[in-house]
Design goal:
InterPro entries: AB_hydrolase_1, AB_hydrolase_fold, Epox_hydrolase-like. Its EC number is 3.1.-.-. Pfam families: Abhydrolase_6. It contains 11 helices and 9 strands. By secondary structure, the protein is α/β, with parallel strands linked by helices. It has 2 domains: about 5-115 and about 185-250, Rossmann fold, CATH 3.40.50.1820; about 120-180, no CATH class. The strands form 2 sheets. Strands 1-3-2-4-5-8-9 form a 7-stranded mixed β-sheet, with helices on both faces. Strands 6-7 form a two-stranded antiparallel ribbon. β6 (about 160-165) and β7 (about 165-170) form a beta hairpin. α1 packs across α11 (about 240-250), α4 packs across α5 and α5 (about 135-145) packs across α6 (about 150-160). The longest helix has 14 residues, at about 60-70.
Length: about 250
């Protein structure tokens, strides 16, 4: 699959991988700083952004897409940073091509299966929008608001609402993401642990990385380090960009 991506800067390569419902732009605050010292490749995962849609949506598929993109660019060695679902893609990359990854940075996600359905209200809102002919972005937000109370979440989703000749449409594949939600929330540990340099960054107020996940993290990433960003939630890279950028830069220099 030919992923859409953006390349910025020069130097050693860092791959940035966004989370569910996102796009390459979502880690833009990280890219803005990193591009001064590195070549930054920001990807749109399949079924997101400007990349193609597909019914196939496993973490193996997502990782392979990125491997093929880097092979096309003749990039052998790289660092990888993934947020949320993108963190699971990054961890899958580490299991598939461990020798090619210099540093693995996982932002606010754990290598576990989550059993709670965290996005039912979002899916309901996206489907509500799809039921109507949208001519203004404000209409889409009104329909989303029937199910999504958080204005920040609505604005995040609306970044992927694109104007077309026939009205507004979601850039991400709503049906495909709903159909593959169990896979997105799931996790299949690799047969061998990744022994490279690994950093997990957690938002203090987020519940995506909990103390009970420590044994699973260390079993799969035995050299993992952890850093908690105070007074931040799941979107810590947007809430505390200066702090997160400093943590990442220090780790990459090791």
């Amino acid at each position: 699959m030919n992923l859409h991506f953006r390349a910025e800067g020069k130097g050693k390569t860092i791959v940035l991988i966004h989370g569910l419902f996102g796009s390459a732009d979502n880690l833009g605050l990280l890219a803005r700083e990193l591009k001064h010292h590195y070549q930054v490749i920001s990807v749109d995962l399949r079924n997101h952004g400007l990349s193609p849609h597909s019914d196939q949506f496993s973490y193996a598929d997502l990782a392979q897409d990125i491997i093929e993109t880097l092979d096309h660019l003749a990039i052998d060695q790289f660092d990888v940073i993934g947020h949320s679902m993108g963190g699971k893609v990054a961890m899958t990359l580490a299991s598939r091509v461990p020798a090619r990854i210099n540093h693995l940075i996982v932002i606010d996600i754990a290598p576990v299966t989550y059993t709670e359905h965290r996005h039912q209200n979002v899916f309901n809102g996206l489907r509500e929008v799809n039921l109507h002919s949208i001519t203004k972005r404000s209409q889409a937000e009104d329909y989303l608001a029937r199910y999504v109370d958080d204005a920040g979440v609505r604005q995040f989703l609306l970044k992927s609402l694109a104007k077309t000749d026939t009205g507004y449409q979601w850039r991400f594949n709503v049906k495909g993401l709903i159909a593959n939600y169990a896979t997105i929330m799931g996790w299949q540990p690799a047969s061998q642990p990744f022994t490279g340099q690994t950093l997990f960054i957690k938002g203090q107020l987020s519940d995506y990385i909990e103390p009970q996940y420590r044994s699973e993290i260390m079993a799969q990433f035995p050299h993992a380090k952890a850093h908690v960003v105070a007074n931040s939630g799941h979107w810590l890279h947007a809430e505390k960009p200066t702090t997160v950028n400093r943590i990442i830069s220090q780790f990459l220099e090791q």
